[in-house]
Structures are given as C-alpha cells and as structure tokens.
Design a protein that fits this description.
The complex is a heterodimer of chains A (192) and B (199).
Chain A (H helix, E strand, L loop, with lengths): L1 H38 L12 H4 L1 E9 L6 E9 L3 H8 L7 E14 L2 E17 L11 E2 L2 E7 L11 H4 L24
Antiparallel strand pairs in A: 1-2, 2-3, 3-4, 4-6, 5-6
Chain B lengths: L1 H26 L17 E2 L8 E4 L17 E6 L1 H10 L7 E9 L9 E3 L2 E4 L1 E12 L10 E5 L9 E2 L8 H7 L11 H4 L4
Antiparallel strand pairs in B: 1-9, 2-3, 3-4, 4-7, 5-6, 7-8
Classes of the chains: A alpha+beta (192), B alpha+beta (199).
Chain lengths: 192, 199
C-alpha cells in the first residue's frame, strides 16, 4: 500500500518534469526565432538587435592603445545573445543562431581618483556576427565561413556598410581561424 | 492510496503551473525576479550569484603600467547591475533598496610596451586576460547609514574570489563616491545606461 503510493507519487512527479522539459524546449526555440527576426531577414540582411544592451550577456572588452597619449583610443565591447555562454561552456562552440555584437567606442582618458582611466566616449558603430555553421546564404557576400558578418555606422543600425565579408571582415579574423574565427581566449567567461 | 493520490495530483499541478508561469514571465519581458543581497550569520556579504548574467554597465580600464605598477582597480573594471534592480531604476530613476553593483576585475595580457600595451596581429592594445577578483556595492539606507546608504565590499583583487566579505570603512571606499559620483553615490556620469536609461 505504502509502496504503491510512493510509486504513484513518483509517476506524477516524473510526468511533471517531462511536461516542464517539453515546455521549456518549445519556448527556447520560440525565443531563438524571435531573436533571429530581430536581427536578420530571410535574405540574410543583418541589423543591430535593438535590445542587446539589456538582454545580451557581456563577453569582454578590447582596448586599442593610443598612438601618442596615455591609455586607449578605442574600446571594443562584445556581447552575446542570451544562452550563448551556457551553450559554449557545454559544447565548446557557438550554436547556430548565436548573435555577437561588438560596440566600437572612441574614448575619454583622464586622471581620476582611481588613476589613469580610459572609458567609453562617442559610439563609432557596431560589428554584428551571426553563427551559421551550415552556410545557409551561399549567394550573399556577407555570409560565409560559418557566420554572417556586418559593420554598421552609429547613425544607422539598420543598414550595413559592408559589402563583402571576405574583404571587409575576414582579414582581421584570420588569426582566430582555429576557434571558429572568434578570439575566444579573450572571453574567460566562456571557459569557467 | 486514494489519500496519497489526492496529495500527489495537486502537488504535480502546482509544480507545472509554477514552471509555466515563471517561463511566461520571461517571454513577456516583465520585471525580472530580483536577486537580493545575502548575508551569513556574521553579517558578512555572500558573493552574489550569477553575476555574469546581469546587465553590463561599462568597463573602464586602468592599466597597471600607467598607474605605478599597481592600479587601485586593476585593470578592466567590468561593472554589472542586478537586472531586477535595473528594471525598477529604469522606471523610477531611483536605485531601489537592495540594488547590487558587481565590479569584476580583469587583468590585461602581459605588457610588451612601457604603457602596459602589447602588439598583436590586430594592432597595439590592451588585451583581456584572466579575472582578478571583484568589488561589490549594495544599497541599504538603514544597514549602511554610516557610509551614505551603500555598503562597499572587496571579494579580493586576485582569484579565486572570496566566498564572503566584510563591509569596508567609509574612508576606504564611500568617501570618493560621496564626494564626486553624480547620482546617489553611483558614477552614473561614466555609464550611459545609468545616466540616460532607456525606457
């Protein structure tokens, strides 16, 4: 009697877990497609996601050194679409649909109570990349090597000025070829 | 048996509803669940959880080499705000009680040039290296009345981060914030997300 009762309870709970898992999987897929619509259309035209600042995860910052003055002349700040960090930690790769956004800022450098500090100034623009390991836009020159690639000037986040990823984008990524063209070693959050 | 079923069925239903409700909240983008500060029995602050999923605020850079070899906050300061607190701040313009800022410190890769920079294929710059401890501030106007309503904590300036930390004296941290930070002892002037929050 007691045993059967426990089995019944166990069965009810396992149903619960199964339903919940199915629901979560479904809603994760829905979130992916919504996220995609926000960033890329059917022809592969990319735009800067509107809500990345409060919904994406921060990956890291790169600083370009100033030529004459102290500190940095540019700060490049990189974000990944929700779920990227967990997925990368599990598989070691960026899953298809991953969106990476890199902001490029001019800087202000000054002497503060904490020392010589460089911080962000005016925004110059954005790089956006979208993972596409199956190369689903073979006729589009902004897609290839497993990614969609585009640069946007700060005054127009909806229209790229890039015309050919292999000429405009790829050259700077060649040293990162072995890590899916991304400088993942600069993002310790991916390797925790 | 019947009695157990009457217990089991509502339990199962409750569990489903809870998960579904929590999930639909996320999809509809209402206020996220808040993570509030946790203290141990000695009153020390426990290292906040899941801060890598919080909202990134900004990352000033103070290279060690430009700051006498050891900057006060070496070197990238990756600042995050707890998302539930930010949702309230965005609407009200006031940091709510329990707001947490998390500043994770991150070293740059070893220097090759006198200013601390190095030269890589992409050019001369300061390249992100390993994490290097963290500092945290918590808003609680009663608990931290002595230091302007915020508590200041260091969870080490090296890894691993300490699991708990004791509150710092006013002169160690709060003093500079009270003197020069733009809004409620927070340096909003350096972070557009805080200075001009988008609704």
């Amino acid at each position: 009697m007691k045993t059967r009762g426990i089995i019944t309870l166990g069965f009810a709970l396992s149903l619960t877990v199964a339903s919940a898992a199915a629901y979560l999987t479904m809603s994760a897929n829905t979130a992916d497609s919504a996220q995609q619509e926000n960033v890329v259309d059917a022809s592969g035209n990319i735009k800067v996601p509107t809500d990345y600042r409060t919904t994406y995860q921060y990956l890291g910052t790169w600083a370009v050194a100033s030529d004459q003055d102290k500190g940095s002349k540019e700060l490049h700040i990189v974000y990944a679409s929700p779920g990227t960090v967990d997925a990368f930690r599990t598989s070691g790769h960026f899953p298809d649909g991953t969106v990476l956004v890199k902001e490029v800022y001019h800087t202000a450098t000054g002497s503060m109570t904490t020392g010589t500090v460089s911080r962000t100034g005016a925004l110059e623009g954005w790089f956006v990349m979208i993972r596409d390991s199956k190369d689903t836009h073979p006729g589009n020159k902004l897609w290839g090597n497993g990614w969609g690639w585009s640069w946007f000037n700060a005054d127009n986040p909806a229209k790229t000025t890039s015309t050919d990823f292999s000429a405009n984008c790829l050259p700077c990524h060649i040293p990162a070829k072995s890590t899916d063209w991304i400088y993942t070693q600069g993002y310790p959050v991916l390797h925790q | 048996m019947d009695k157990l079923m009457t217990v089991a069925a509502p339990l199962a239903l409750a569990a489903i509803s809870t998960i579904v409700l929590a999930q639909s909240d996320t999809n509809n983008n209402p206020a996220p669940t808040r993570y509030l500060p946790e203290y141990n029995e000695s009153g020390d602050l426990i290292l906040p959880k899941n801060y890598h999923e919080w909202i990134f605020v900004g990352s000033p850079l103070t290279p060690n080499a430009l700051n006498g070899g050891e900057a006060n906050f070496p070197e990238f300061h990756n600042v995050y705000i707890e998302p539930g607190s930010y949702a309230i701040y965005k609407k009200s313009g006031v940091f709510p009680e329990g707001t947490i800022f998390f500043k994770e410190l991150q070293l740059t890769l070893p220097k090759e040039n006198p200013d601390g920079s190095r030269t890589e294929p992409s050019g001369r710059g300061f390249f992100p290296g390993p994490f290097n401890g963290a500092d945290v501030t918590v808003k609680d106007t009663l608990r931290y009345a002595e230091s302007g309503g915020w508590g200041y904590y260091s969870f080490n300036h090296h890894e691993p981060k300490a699991p708990t930390a004791k509150v710092r004296m006013k002169v160690e941290c709060a003093y500079c914030h009270i003197a020069s930070a733009k809004k409620d002892d927070v340096w909003t002037q350096f972070y557009p997300l805080l200075d001009t929050p988008q609704p």
